[in-house]
User: Fold this.
Amino acid sequence: MSDKPFQIVVFGATSFVGQIICQYLTDTYGVDGDVKWAAAGRNPDKLEQVKASLGSKAAALPLLQADANDPGQLADLCNMTDVVLSTVGPYALYGEPMVKACVETGTDYVDLTGETQWIRAMLLKYEAKAKESGARIVNCCGFDSIPSDLGVHFLQKQAQEQFGAPCTRVKMRVKAAKGAMSGGTVASMLNIAQEAAKDKELRKQLANPYALCIDNAVSSERQPDVKSATFDDDFGVWLAPFVMAAINTRVVHRSNALLNGTYGNNFAYDEAMITGKGTKGWLAAQSITAAMGGFLVASVIKPTRWLMEKTFLPAPGEGPSPEAQEKGFYDIRLHGITDKGDVIRTKVTGDRDPGYGSTAKMISEAALCLATETPRTLKPGGFWTPATALGDNLIERLEAKAGVHFSGQ
Assistant:
């Protein structure tokens, strides 16, 4: 056990998702009990407001002031905790100083980013130093990309047990989901679209399924990518593009690379949304494809972006109500095929709205799993994925605490 005062510090506790995380930790583990945690942010008054919103049971919650632009404060924070849980996004704009502080102090770190280009930049800049200092950096510990990354991990484990071989072709399909976006997520999506519109090299990078594998991609397979209305013969349904596929697929391929090709050197993986059968399913797939394309185009044109931000897009700090989070859910199906043609199907389901209610629980359990169940002797410093850093231990925690379940179909 570490001799630091805290196992987790929630950095960005006053953000929309930060507040939900603090509520989950308070409700599930209490304050100053077996789990030692603190809330941190730039504004002391807002931190006090968050603490007050948690009720009398959070009266003893420690609050730490730390500004992302103050390296000294960030270093002090890192030296007080085993794991920094960062919600400060868009990460491409605000995330690097904390990653740098964690790497320099040898402090473990988890976040909620879905920004491929930023993760790649951090990998190139800090991975060697993280390996030296012992800092374990685990990105993408929310809805992107835990259900996908751990879902594939779970499916491959079942395939090895049943067939003695991995599934070299895996499809992830979102069968059903109910949730809404917060202003922070929208801000991240708009920032990625704007950066890509100005940078040809970045567009090439974002299109590369092995963008996060750096120099150690193990699969030479041309990767499938659902970009329009597509019929899936295995599921017998129409598909539409899935907005999170652009990050999830990259994380899954990085897991395969970190596992030295355990999923196969010809591993192929893609994600899509199920829209249904027949004409109705086709029309729904066409509508979703058109809406996604329209949003991307509008987001890079200043007048239309301004209009969207002023009219219907949530502002930073805004998001679904507690009632909406409670009513949310998701149901994800995975279909795997081995080289010999053996077929296996598994599913991942979660209660609560995927992007916030469920995400808050997933990242909290990921941080605790890293702090309490992942010794450095087994997982040394470096940049990891949820599956490679936390694997089965996190699956057990999610099933026991977080309303996320992994099972055969």
Summary: The chain has 16 helices and 14 strands.
